Amino acid sequence: MIDIAILTYPGAQQAAVLGMADLFAAADRGGAALSVGQWTVADGAMARVDAPAAGTPLPSICILPPTLGGPRDDIDPVLVRWLRDRHADGAVLASVCLGAFVLGETGLLDGRTITTHWAYEDQFRSRFPKTSVDTDRIVIDDGDIITAGGVMAWTDLCLTIIARFIGHAAMLEVAQTFLIDPPGRAQSYYSGFSPHTGHQDAAILQAQRFLRDSDGKIVDVPTLAARAGLEERTFLRRFQKATGHTTTEYWQRLRVSNAKAKLRDTDLAIDQVGWDVGYTDPSAFRKVFNRIVGLTPSEYRRRFTNGGGMPSRDGP
């Protein structure tokens, strides 16, 4: 029996709490593999909501649901200590969207790569500078820590857990029953480029503002270094340290973000979109777009055009 705790705390999205319970129940129709319960802070201790305290087994998987309204500062230290203790006991800890901010308070994310909602990447980096953030991915399974990106990524997280602890066949059956995609989507399909500006390097901020104002079209290193008032080698080193990207990766992501908007909101030919955002070589534009987004420009337009298909973003 695998005991799963879905942790309810101030701001936790109840739709996700109940939805996760439904997916796990569907994966374990016989009731022999999983036990799922809600846990919360009560009278200064963590307790399972639907079971007496005495004799309640401690969970082997603890999930922090998403929150709505932005990251919270009033995270209960009782919850943080309990999460550390469960991890020390061998439990898997998981978070969805802004639940990663709660997980970050444990210190267990230091030195790891995690994901959270792309719109809060900069805020997460500033609050937890020892943690690497990859918001191109919807789920990062790091064994004892699993993190998922956007608000609705609880479906991806649940399917990942089902596949790992019950089996791939059970995961596919649940996905087919609920008409949801099996794990494999990328958050990069939905995200814009949210560059890290929460660092304290004022010189690099000057270069970032210049790149933003020029839409990433003026990208030669001497110009950027001059804007920052730095020698070129120093500029390149400090730029990557501050932003988490090389200058090339940074301006490519800025251009691709602009191209996404044009693909969604205009009927410009794809080659013209590439030209407008700064690419004179159509094949280079397609190659960079596919690498960063995970879709070709044509696939992206079909999937996210304002005239139909899926919406381009899931709100934080």
Would you mind describing this structure in some detail?
This protein is α/β, with parallel strands linked by helices and 316 residues long. It folds into 2 domains: 2-189, Class I glutamine amidotransferase (GATase) domain (Rossmann fold); 202-304, Orthogonal Bundle (Arc Repressor Mutant, subunit A). It has helices at 14-27, 77-88, 99-104, 121-127, 154-165, 168-178, 202-213, 221-228, 232-243, 247-265, 270-277, 282-293, 297-304; strands at 2-7, 34-42, 45-48, 61-64, 92-96, 113-114, 132-133, 139-141, 145-148. The strands form 2 sheets. It has a 7-stranded mixed sheet with strand order 3-2-1-4-5-9-8. Strands 6-7 form a two-stranded parallel ribbon. The two termini are 34 Å apart.
Keywords:
single chain; 316 residues; alpha/beta; Rossmann fold; Arc Repressor Mutant, subunit A; seven-stranded mixed beta sheet; two-stranded parallel sheet; 13 helices; 9 strands; 45% helix
